[in-house]
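Hi R.,

As promised, here are both runs. First protein below:
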Amino acid sequence: MLSIFNVLLIAVSLSADSFAIALAIGSFFTTITKKEVAKLISAFMIAHFIMLLIGWYAGNIIVDYIDALSHWIILLFLGFVGIKLIYEAVKNKDELEIKKDFFRYRNILTLSLITSLDALAIGFSFALLHINILIPNVIISVVVGIMSLLGIFVGGKLSKMFSKIMKIIAGIILIIIGLLQLFEHYFEHYF
């Protein structure tokens, strides 16, 4: 049986990517509507909830298959988005046009799936430990939502203070997250 404290620690660690991406989004866009915030946060929460369930039910075969490719998928997508954000910040493109494209459902869905890939392994480990998934899953999903909201809020405050530089930093953060995922994968498997 996992204690609530342990579930909260797992939840905070699983929400680190969501927080960092939300921070980058909040930093890049000087204004984000409540609807856009709700869309992003609910997508992150739902993706984590579903990935934990899939991991819990699916078992080792799917986790190993996805783990073999997940670091490359994350690097490619976040690298692409990061480079695109840096380019758009340097070119001073219209923020409303960028935001309209960025908050399309396919982009939000892809971001939410990428941030929740680690939840597959956690769900699988919960199955091995014979832990009932429902309560930890709800707690983890809520913490992911809170951390994402915090990331958007902090990023928004930074964006208002340092507008253009924060847009460039937001792109760099996404690229670094992608690279860290790649390095972490190789470090775990080869050292």
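And here is the second one, sequence first, then its structure tokens:
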Amino acid sequence: MNDEATRLGPVHALGAAAMDLMIGARELYSVFVRTLYYTVRGRREKGAVTAQLYEIGNHSLFFLSITMGFIGMILAYQSGLQSKRVVPDFTMLGATYLELLVRDLGASLGGLMLATRVGAGIAAEIGSMVVTEQIDALRMCAADPIDFLMVPRFIASMVMTLVLIVFSGTVAFVSGGITAYIAFDVPLQTFFNASLVDAGDLTIGLTKCLAYGAAIPIVSGYCGLSTFGGSEGVGWATTRAVVNTSLTIIILDFLISGAGFLVFPG
């Protein structure tokens, strides 16, 4: 009997984990659908979206620009080293780097950076409201937390994620050009070459920006709304928001990249 219980223990644990995952996915899907519904049909509190645009955009601009600037320098330097070992010709270094930045790296790296700052902030804020019973007070006032809290963050995140990634991607490209000029004597006129970037690259890059901008508040907001307990629960919700949002961005990157290479194989 004990042997059978020992044998079934991991099976039961795996089944319980799978059940929890299915329940969480269903609740996350419900939050997403309700957010889309209230985005179209919900009530707008005056100034709510503007406040979130400032909170997400202004407070993330310096962090994202500095991070992407250093990443741009590292990528350009490493790309130049690898090119030098194979073919010591840097005429297409900037064009290749820009294509990769526009199609994938700019949106994906920027999205992961925003997941750590914006996602953690959303989860901590909403989670604190849950444990202090402010969410219950909203429901007693006939205000849906999804409409009141999630929709302004959803709209602002989609807008500012696109703006921030385009701006920080430009910073990364410029810093990469300066690095290539200093390290490999590549003229800036040669590095700033956009000949390889086409409509397919722009479409894939912009699609990723919008998808990441939608995923960050949805996943983080869900983690905040599912908070329980006191301050420890808020900390756990914040950790889950960063981990789950980063994982969602990686999965979306894979799916959008795969679909993009089928539609725009170039």
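A quick note on the second one: The mean pLDDT is 87. Let me know what you think.

Best,
J.
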